[in-house]
Specification:
Elements (H helix, E strand, L loop, with lengths): L2 E4 L5 E2 L2 E2 L6 H7 L3 E8 L9 H14 L6 E6 L4 H11 L3 E8 L5 E4 L5 E4 L1 H7 L3
Parallel strand pairs: 4-5, 4-6
Antiparallel strand pairs: 1-6, 2-3, 7-8
Length: 131
């Protein structure tokens, strides 16, 4: 059964859940500006989620933070499997936040190029940054 999920591995800060990739944890600690990649997907055959509202809340929260200059937000909406991989490789973020539907640890629910639901393993998401 698919449900709304927010990936959260390693840290959880107030209402913002984040996912560190294995390689990015060290870069997070050493980098002056941390890249936060916000990915969202809402396949058309699933319940409509207000993902834009969630992104807005994250951005507003960061704007009020004391050390906001230490973070850069990059958001990608309606990501497909190839978009997800490309965004991870192109931006090399230290923090990844996913909003959308999924099946828990089994995978994230994205829409493929044909408009059909496609589950993407969270392990593959983490592995994409190591390639």
């Amino acid at each position: 059964m698919l449900r709304k999920i927010v990936c959260s591995i390693c840290i959880k800060s107030s209402n913002v859940n984040v996912l560190f990739t294995n390689q990015s944890k060290k870069a997070y600690q050493n980098s002056t500006v941390k890249k936060i990649l916000i990915l969202s997907a809402n396949p058309k055959d699933k319940n409509k989620l207000r993902l834009d509202e969630e992104v807005r809340e994250i951005q507003a929260g960061l704007e009020r933070a004391r050390r906001r200059e230490q973070f850069e937000i990059i958001s990608k909406m309606a990501v497909r499997p190839n978009d997800l991989r490309r965004a991870l490789l192109d931006h090399e973020p230290q923090i990844v936040h996913f909003s959308g539907h999924g099946t828990g640890s089994t995978g994230l629910a994205l829409e493929n190029n044909s408009g059909e639901l496609q589950l993407v393993s969270t392990r593959l998401v983490l592995g994409a940054q190591r390639d």
